[in-house]
Amino acid sequence: MEQIIQVKDLSFEYRNREDQPDLLALDGVNLEIAQGSFVAVLGHNGSGKSTLAKHINAILLPTQGQVRVAGMDTREEDKLFDIREKAGMVFQNPDNQIVATVVEEDVAFAPENLGLPSQEIRRRVDAALRAVGMENFKRSAPHMLSGGQKQRVAIAGVLAMEPQVLVLDEPTAMLDPGGRAEVMNTIRRLNREKGITVLLITHHMDEAAQADRVVVMEDGHVVGDGPPRKIFAQVDKMHRTGLGVPQTVEVLEELNRKGCSLPIDALTVEECAQRLMAFLED
Amino acid sequence: MLKDITLGQYFPVESPVHHLDARTKLILSFAFIIVLFLAHGFWAYVLCAAGVIGVTLLSHIRFRMLLKSLKPIAFLAVFTALLNMLYTPGQILWEFWIFHITREGLETAVYMVVRIMLLVASTSLLTYTTSPVALTDAIENLFRPLSRIHLPVHEFAMMMTIALRFIPTLIEETEKIMNAQKARGADFESGNLLKRAKALVPVLVPLFVSAFRRADELSVAMECRLYRGGSGRTRLKELKMGKNDGAAYAVTCVFFACVFVLTRMLP
Fold first, then answer.
1. Which of A190, B46, B236, B258 could make a disulfide contact with A108, Cβ separation 3.0–4.6 Å?
2. Are B57 and B172 in contact (CB under 8 A)?
3. pLDDT for position A213
4. For residue B130, is pLDDT > 50?
5. Cβ neighbours of A158 in B, within 8 Å
6. How high is the ipTM of this complex?
7. Are residues A93 and B217, on separate chains, in Cβ contact within 8 Å?
8. In which region does residue B229 sit, left (phi positive, over 0), alpha (psi from -120 to 50) or beta (all else)?
9. Does B235 sit within 8 Å of A115, measured CB to CB?
């Protein structure tokens, strides 16, 4: 499969901050992301996960190393807008990404910047709103929507560029549980049905568990990379990074410590219950 | 309480007025304001009021909304009325100490109030029926000749759109900050004007800090969505004058002519 994002020996240093010493936020990160995959980058605050996300969109440029998006080096200035069109970025706070006072006019912002004819803009806006399930709100004012709905509008605003990659930087951090579920369902559907490559930055175990692949970051390094079942089975290691594991894994691990022998790779409550049932029947 | 501000709010419904080109509405509203100041006499004002009521009916905007927009200027209207009543010389109707109310004063007072009310109602109708984006588009379009002399017309229009977009967000934020401070014993309601103004300082500081943070994040988000200034930018809804716009211009011209005739014939 084609690697749409290639990160090679990437280091990044925050400089020129008067009161603090230079900070090495990323230190020799290597990462390749296949087209169409759903990758979660997991890490707690200060692990460098957001800094990594900002490199894929050329908001930040590498201090050392290289980032390629669809074959384009992010340091080539004349490719800047092509890269941003290929890799769309959704941020944490939906309020600070919405530009216009009507939903459809906000979604139209990116295609308008691309200079497309107005019928094409209309087609893209309608398609993007349908893709996130917000087509009934196209005439609404963004400030009247719930947090989850606003974030879906923000995602639609990026989808209207028809990107191949969607980079989401903690998109659920400011939402209530209902809004989080809405946004996660939307992201998963976009990945499965539209084949959009998703790079989800998060510190929620249960969100990372929904991805095909989890990349664990700590202090600017990649310390774990693999399918969620494998990553979360390394309970001790995950605890050492300060992240922990999903509660389902936690329960099974605790039981094992008390003398049971359960497979601990359960990521959903349903799976966890099945493991327990199988164990009790034996 | 702060949420009651209706100025600059758009009500998206389907109506012939909503479908008019924003430039048409902007030009006609502006012309109406001028005509309001040229009009004179009872019947001319009745016709102007009828015009505003007619447009309101056509645009499916509820009268309650129109009245709500008049509330903030009630004080101004009463104040102007009082001044006009007391200081216009003429035939005295009623006298007390140094105050005397004249027939002419009473007349001008009534006309002034009607004029102010119609002025605000007509501009409210403009913002109720036109989305802020369309309105700023129209302004950008009408002022485009000025960009030849290097005035940043597009940038001003963009700033206006963003300002309008963030009004409700910042109002919400102000309420949150005030509530947080009230919970810690801040007092915004008592004391004289100076004291109350001072109490607002701890509200304004965090509000400004957060507004700057928002501006920073928004600018990054806009760049990520390929914003690179006004050149080469197209629009979802291109401004287009149609048959309806022609009709609107024609009807309004006839209407203005009638107002002038009434001003002349029945002053």
1. B236
2. no
3. 95
4. yes
5. 224-225
6. 0.86
7. yes
8. left
9. no
Predicted confidence band at A19 (pLDDT cuts at 50, 70, 90)? low
pLDDT per residue as tens digits for the range A39-67: 999 988 888 899 999 999 999 999 999 99
3 state DSSP class of A2: coil
Q: Domain extents for chain A?
A: 3-245
Q: How far apart are CA A152 and CA A158, in angstroms?
A: 10
A118-142 residues labelled b (16+ CB within 10 A) or e (exposed): beebbebbebbbebbebbebbebbb
- Encoding tokens for residue B70? 């008049």
Structure tokens at A78: 């004349």
Q: Could you say which of A57, A108, A161 has the minimum Cβ distance to residue B236?
A: A108
| Angle separating helix axes B42-58 and B22-38, nearest 10 degrees | 160
Would you call A95 and B169 a contact, using CB atoms and an 8 Å cutoff?
A: yes
pTM of the prediction?
0.81
Give domain limits for chain B: 2-130+242-265, 155-224
The topology (CATH level 3) of A3-245 is Rossmann fold (3.40.50)
β-strand partners of A38: A198
- Residue in chain B closest to A96 (alpha carbons) equals B218
Using only the alpha carbons of chain B, give its radius of gyration: 23
The per-residue pLDDT for range B44-67, each reduced to its tens digit, is 888 999 999 999 999 888 888 888
Q: How far apart are CA B21 and CA B240, in angstroms?
A: 6
User: Tokens at residue A114, please?
Assistant: 């691309």
